[in-house]
Design brief:
The complex is a heterodimer of chains A (120) and B (108). Chain A has no helices and 11 strands. Chain A is an all-beta fold. In chain A, the strands form 2 sheets. In chain A, strands 2, 4, 5, 6, 9, 10 and 11 form a 7-stranded mixed beta sheet that branches. In chain A, strands 1-3-8-7 form a 4-stranded antiparallel beta sheet, with no helix packed on it. The radius of gyration of chain A is 14 Å and the shape is globular. Chain B contains no helices and 9 strands. The chains are: A mainly beta (120), B mainly beta (108). The interface between A and B is medium-sized, with 23 and 25 residues.
Chain lengths: 120, 108
């Protein structure tokens, strides 16, 4: 069965960077893109970016494109999110999600989420 | 940028029908997908491409999309349907995924 398993929670200070991993199993990793979505406390879902696991092509949300880098390691079927210059506004649960459908239009499997807390 | 607007909350009695709307400019021309999310859990896809259900999702969940409004309908509501519900589209004009503002469905 398809599974996305994310790395554990992180506590960071303002100005630092964080890198979250998402290990996929149960399907051919290169067949689907991976999106990253975050959810701040008490708020809704916010899409941050997408990466093709086949080509490495990326597409970032406009408001995050200067601070986010998405990468994949096809040898381990793992996707990564790096977020730089952290502020308290980046405190959130970060999810990876497999993009499905004919044009990767929806997200059919999700990781369990990774809590990132930014505090001095 | 493209925006999707949902009502903050919908309340429904057990056994009745809940309807969650998702408003967007000419949303009927896009494919709409719906997720539910229970507290402390990751979102789960319940409807894709306007009206199709992933395997394992009950037939009680259905969707429609026309004009400026997409609708998720939950028939014969059960206590276990209490969750936050989000709509989502792919906006081709900006090459961005967009999520709706979210609706909390409460079973009375």
């Amino acid at each position: 069965q398809v599974q996305l398993v994310q790395s554990g929670g992180e506590a960071k200070k303002p100005g630092a960077s964080v890198k979250v991993s998402c290990k996929a199993s149960g399907y051919t990793f290169s067949n689907n893109g991976i999106s990253w979505v975050r959810q701040a406390p008490g708020h809704g879902l916010e899409w941050m970016g997408w990466i093709s696991a086949y080509s490495g092509t990326t597409n970032y949300a406009q408001r995050h494109q200067d601070r986010v880098t998405l990468t994949t390691d096809t040898s381990t079927s793992t996707a990564y999110l790096e977020l730089r210059s952290l502020t308290s506004d980046d405190t959130a649960v970060y999810y990876c999600a497999r993009a499905g459908g004919h044009f990767d239009s929806f997200h059919d499997y999700w990781g369990q989420g990774t809590q990132v807390t930014v505090s001095s | 940028s493209y925006e999707l607007t949902q009502p903050p909350s919908v309340s429904v009695a057990p056994g009745q029908t809940a309807r969650v709307t998702c408003g967007g400019n000419n949303i009927g021309s896009k494919s709409v997908h719906w997720y539910h999310q229970k507290p402390g859990q990751a979102p789960v896809l319940v409807v894709f491409d306007d009206k199709d259900r992933p395997s394992g999702i009950p037939e009680r969940f259905s969707g429609s999309n026309s004009g400026n409004t997409a609708t998720l309908t939950i028939s014969r509501v059960e206590a276990g349907d209490e969750a936050d519900y989000y709509c989502q589209v792919w906006d081709s004009s900006s090459d961005q995924y967009v999520f709706g503002t979210g609706t909390t469905v409460t079973v009375l």
